[in-house]
Every structure is written in C-alpha cells, then in structure tokens.
Amino acid sequence: MTTATTASPAARAEAAPLRASLGVRAMFGILMVIGAAAFLIELGSDPTRAYAAFLIGYFFTLGLALFGTLFTAIHYLVGATWSVVVRRVAESFMAYFPVAFLLFFVLLLGVPHLYVWSTPGVTAHGIDAEHLTKGGWLTPSAFAFRGLVTLTIWSLFSWFFIRNSTRQDQTGDAGLTRSSTKAAAIFVPVFAITLTLMSFDLLMSLEPLWFSTMFGVYCFAGLWQAGLATLTIAVVLMRRQGALQGIVNKIHYHDLGKYLIAFSVFWMYIAFSQFMLIWYANLPEEIEWFIPRTYTGWGALGIALMAFKFGIPFFALLHQKMKESEAVLLTISGGILLGQWIDLYWVVLPAFSPERVILGWPEIGVMLGFIGVFGWVVLGFLSRHPVAAARDPFYERSVRFHG
Amino acid sequence: MNEPVAASLGEPPLIDHRKTFADVTADVAAPTERMPGMMWKAAFGVAVVLVIQMVATIGYQFVNGLGILGIMHPVGWGTYITNFVFWIGIGHAGTLISAILHLFRQRWRTAINRSAEAMTIFAVMTAGLFPLIHVGRPWFAYWLVPYPNWRLLWVNFRSPLVWDVFAVSTYFTISLCFWYVGLIPDFASLRDRSTGWRRAIYGIASLGWRGSERHWQHYERAYMMLAGLSTPLVLSVHSIVSFDFATSILPGWHTTIFPPYFVAGAIFSGFAMVVTLLVILRKVFKMEEYVTLLHLENMNKIILVTGMMVGYAYATEFFIAQYSGSEFERFTFLNRAGGPYLWAYWTMVTCNVVAPQVFWFKKFRRSIPVMFVVSLLVNVGMWFERFTIIISSLHRDFLPANWGYYRFTFADWSVLIGSFGWFFMWFLLFCRFFPAISIAEVKSVLWTAKQNALPAGKRAAGAVHD
C-alpha cells in the first residue's frame, strides 16, 4: 500500500448521483423497443431462432450482472484499495438481477424449443431418453428449479452488497465493510458451484451428448472478461461526462488495462486448453461439438473470437501508455464485448444450424434489446445513488492512489 | 484514511517499526556468518544419508533395469511420475510469490520471496531427476533435446512429453535468473561485511555491485521484466505437465479441466511447502520478526482458496463422469472412490479439501501448530492426488484381463524418501550460505523507509534518515 502525500484536502472529490442526459436514456429505451419487436416478430415465424437469440442476450447480460457481484465480492475479500472508486459502478450492474429474474420466465417458455432433452420422445437421434436427460438431471422442471434457486441466491447476495454499500454512504460505518467481506467469503465458493451448473444447464445442455469439465471455467473466463470491459467503458464514459472527474485517475485506468490484458490471456488459456485437449484426443463424443464450430463459417467466427478476445487486446494493451489512453480502452473494451457476443453466438447457434452461419435481424435486434434493458437499469441505479462509494474507509486512499 | 480504521480492517505493519536498516542486514546475514548449530548439522546429516541411499538405489536400478520398481502391466507409470508431478508442483509457490504477487503489489511478499524462490529451484532440481531415471536408458537422456544430428532424427514435437522438456527447462532457467538477480544486492551486503575467502566468493557472486543509482535502475528494470516473464510460467508449466495425461484418451486422465486444475493444485501444494519450511526456518534462524504471523496467515488464506479450487475440480470431474453417460468414465471415478485404491482417494480428499477448511477461522490461520499440521497434511494429500490420478486410472484397463494392483517395492520407497533428502540438502545449504530473506526488499517496507519517503516536515519523530 502506498502513502499518499500530494493531494490536498481541497482536491477531495465529492461523489454525486449521475445526471444522465435524456438522449442516453432515450437511446436505451429505443434499443429495448427494437429488441422486443425483433423477438416478438421472430417468435411468430421461427420460435427456436427467437429463443436462441434470447438465450444469447440473456446469458450475456446475466454474466455482466454476475460480474458486478463477483467483482465487488473479490475486491472486498482481498482488501483491495485501488478499486474502491470503481466499485459502485460494478455494483450498479447488480441492479439487473430483478430483471434477469423476470426474463428467466421467458426463457422457461423457450425450453421446449431450445433443448432437445426437454422432449426426448420427439428426437430422432436414436438415443434413448435415459441418456438424453442424463438419468433425469435434465428435465424442464429440474431446469426451472435449479435456475430459480440460483437466481435467488445471486439476487440475495447482490442485494446484501448493495444494501451495505449504500448504507455506508449515509453512515460511513467501517463495520459494513467487514460485514460485506464476510458475505464475500461465502459468495465466492457459492458462485463457483452455481455458475458451473447454470452454464451446464443453459449452454452445455443445448447439445446434451457433449460434455467438458472445463465448460464452467470457460464461461467464467468469458463473463469476467466481458464484465471488465463493460466496467472500463462505463468508468471512462462517466469520467469524460464528468461524474467521475477527480475521482478516477490515470493509475486506475492503468489497473483496469492490466486487468483487461491479464484476463484476455486467461480466456485464451482456458479456451485453448479446452479445444486442444479435445482436438488431440479426438474422441467421437467430444469432438462432435467442435466439428461444426471449426469448419464452415463458424470456423471463421472462431478465428474472429480469438482476435477480439485475445489477439487485439493483448497486443494493443502491452504498453503502459495504451492502458492509460481513454480512446484505446474504449475501443479495446468494445472489441472484447463484441467478442463475448460472438463467443455466445458461436456456442449457441451451431446447435441449431451446424452447416451454415445464420445472422440476421432477430439475432442483432434481440441483442440490442438486451443492451437497452441492461443500460437502462444500470443508468437508473447510478442516477439514484452516488457514483462512488465515497464513505468507504478506503475511499480517500483509492482517490489518491498512485500505484 | 485514518490509520486506526485501517488497522481494524486488517492492515497491521509488515515489520516491527523499531527495526532499522542496519538491524535487517545484521539479522539476515547472521546465519551465514556463524557456524551452524547442532540442529542444522543433524538435519543436514540425515538429508545427506537419504541422498546417498537414493543414489545407491538408482545405481542398482541402472544395472538391473526398471524391473526393480513396482511398475508392472498395466501400471507403467508409477512413483517416478507421481514424484515428478509432485515436485514440479511444489515449485509453483515460489514463482507465484516472486512474480505474481510482485505484479499485484503485495508488499508482504518481500520477507518470504527469497526462500520461496530457492524452494522453487530445488523442487525443480528434484523433479528433474525422475524423468531422467525413468527413461530406461538414462545415458541417452540427451535424446530428449532436439539437436541437429547426422541421422536427421528429431524428437516427436507432437508429444506432450517433449513439451515438458521445453517447459521445465525454461521454467528452471527463468527461475534461476530471477532468483539470482534478486540475490545480487544482498550478496554485495554480505561481501561488505565479510573478510578473506568469504569476501572473495561473495564478491564474485555480487558481480561488482556497488549500489549506485544506475545499478539500482537496471536492477529494478531487470527484476520487473523477469517478473513479467515468470508470470506466464506459473500457468504454463503445470498446464503442460497436465497435458502429459490429458492428451491421452484414458478415462481419468483425459478431461479438459486438467490444466487449471493442475495449476491450482501446484500452487496449493507449493504454499503448503513454503509454510512448512518457513515455520521451521523462522524458528531455527530466529527470524520471527521478519516472517511474521501476518505472512503465514496470508499464505494460509491462499492455501484455503486453492484447496477449494482443487475441491471444485474433483467435484466437477465426478459430476461430469456421471453426466457424460460414458460407462468407462463412470466406472473410473466410482473405482477411484470405492475401488481398491479408495484409501488413496479418501486420503487425498481429506487432506486437500477437508483439512484446509480450518483456515476459515482467523484463530487457526494464526496458530503455528495448526498450520504446521495442515501444511504437512496438504503435502501428503497432494502427493496422493497425483498417485490417485496416475495409478487409479491405469490399474484397471478397459478389459478386466488387464487389471492389476500396483505396489511399492523397496526401490520406490528409497527413491521417494531420497528425493526429500535431496531437496532438503539443497535447502539447508541455502539457509547456511545465502541470505534467506531479501535484505534489500525488506528494507523497502520498513517503517523507516516509509518515513524517509515523506517530505521532511511530515516525518514522525525517531525515524532514521540516511
């Protein structure tokens, strides 16, 4: 930890709620309308495609909300001080959980369209129901039960972190930090188990014969990287806009940049390990998942995925100056988010169209809709609460942070 | 922020604020400047005896062949590979402490990085023995290295065993450089305090270090670069070790989670070994003021976290074995937990997943007897993890005709015990002749150093200024 010497008390920044312009709100509102329209129109003609697009957007935004909880938890747990100034922004992502809870019921309506195990009698794969449902693990009611329990756990922890943090805004009580730290210690292992099961249920079971022990870690790597990119974008935009001016400095940018580069390497490491081991062993029950995804147009998307999630961020962010540049951070983070979308797209859609890449208004429109909902909710949260946890015991140290 | 709040949230000073720069040099240099005590001599004697008996067994094996070991059909990889993976894993804590914690600005690492890095180097030296003595014709061990030869024979670059040669030799080289660069200023301190032949040796080792500003500038830059180079090695080495197993199609070996699972396990076992060693070292060499309960507590936290990571991997493997629907996968895991090697499996689970859970409580994280016992249990558990993975997956092949039960022979025991002797022999020599704590880095976290960094008016009374 460093001892700050230079900043004078007069320079101490006050954190206030965000004053978002009407234009930004309107933009998110329009995106929401586009998304709803695209989903409903496609639902009439091809429900499977509509629900597949829904699943991509749902997992994308759910991952961002979950990142908010995990980022908050981990930074409490390790006693990090540098990140206190950006913690509130991460906390705002958690405001999406009630919406995610409601949208899960829409996903439940899509289960018969998305998952072959839900109607085992119908499939003509010549595979018995016992094998397809994994002996009763994959049934619509079990899927709904696990999903709702998991979302409840995540929502409760998120509510608790937000409650403590916003209460501290009023009282400045250091005991609240201690209480959140304890909750964080419980949340992190709970997260590992619940995310793994959720990723198996929502994504891996799209092709129920395929399995990979790495899949939970793969989904974690993706959502953590995408969350960091979203956090970076939000922080940079809010500093430009003025809300975080005088609170976030270049060193915080540098740290966010280091985070981005480190986890682009981590994602590539996990993705490569999963791919290489399956490719090398070439067992029929495993390789069948990668065959459509590495040939045809999906293969090209796989390359794009590596570029956006690893190649570009890694080389662009090597130099310290680049990590501190707002323009670079915004561009690279945008690329990473595009990569995360391609990733989920590349995981989900070959299950329905192994031969040909399908991309059209349903996929793009629904994704825009999810961005709209997420942005709307986050903006709402930040307009109600100060943009930084200004009475956290480590806040001043974080503001004056100089590495 | 105000310091009482910081202290209440768990940020005590790293080192007692009364320590001066001169104290640090004197305390750390002391063990190298006096004859070691009876404890050291006895421990060193035992270690050397263990090494001698191991060398005798290896010699006997070279003459008589690998048949003297327990390996048989279908278990072709036995203790040697178990030991190899175990010792490579031990090394990881040193690299994590020196490189990753450095990048994470964890200043508490300064008191423990030197000994942890030394441990890394000796652990890799121990691990390296096993593939060499396992190759059957060890006098051709150099064939592992790709070199231009007149028969145009190359190694099989697609074999993960060859990747291992690259990974481990890179790891050893970088770790050695990193360790040595860190040692240079401290060797110079020892040189300046000593006379005669010791002065000459430390003088050569310190490469003409004078402590000028320019020297420090180059030093810091080299140190940072080596930290950056070492960081991917923490992940890569044990990932590639895991590929030795996971690229095969054997149930129990072939599973995609192996790379991060092995890395977490390596860090886990490595930190347990660091705790074991430091608990002894700080007592024997009276360094309790430098390696404090805070350091040990932090390491115990890492043991708890990584212990749960390996627990996660065990659970995921078991779940997916069931989920996969493959009868071979299912059998392999049920056979692990309930077959003839269930004693090894449950030893592993108890030591690696259950035992570290005591570290949820601060009282136990800071209790020397508790952490010592847990660290030993974790070491045992991690050895059994590798044993379970290797032996239990091999001993019942796809056809029941190829089923067997692997047992240790005297040679397996001899080499396993000898490997500990070999490791401790080097570590004891290190404690005797090297500064076991990084003098220069510890000085940078002293209260005095922090005071000196403040403008003159703000320094506390009593701070020493150079």
Highlighted features:
A: 403 residues; mainly alpha; B: 466 residues; Formate dehydrogenase/DMSO reductase fold; 17 helices; globular
Return the CATH topology of chain B.
Formate dehydrogenase/DMSO reductase fold
What is the count of structural domains of chain A?
Answer: 1
Helix content of chain A: over 70%
**What is the helix/strand order of chain B?**
HHHHHHHHHHHHHHHHH
**What is the residue-averaged pLDDT of chain B?**
87
Largest sheet: number of strands, sense, barrel closure of chain A: none
For the largest beta-sheet of chain B, the strand count, sense and barrel status come to: none
Quaternary state reads: heterodimer
Provide a short characterization of the protein structure.
The complex is a heterodimer of chains A (403) and B (466). Chain A is an all-alpha fold and 403 residues long. Chain A has helices spanning 22-45, 47-77, 84-93, 97-114, 129-132, 140-171, 174-202, 215-241, 250-281, 284-294, 296-316, 320-323, 326-348, 361-384, 395-399.
Structure explained in plain terms:
The complex is a heterodimer of chains A (403) and B (466). Chain A has one domain. Helices cover 73% and strands 0% of the residues of chain A. Chain A contains 15 helices and no strands. In chain A, α2 packs antiparallel against α7, α6 packs antiparallel against α7 and α9 runs antiparallel to α11. Chain B contains 17 helices and no strands. The model of chain B has no long low-confidence stretch (mean pLDDT 87). Classes of the chains: A mainly alpha (403), B mainly alpha (466). At the A-B interface, α7, α8, α9 and α15 of A face α1, α8, α9 and α10 of B.
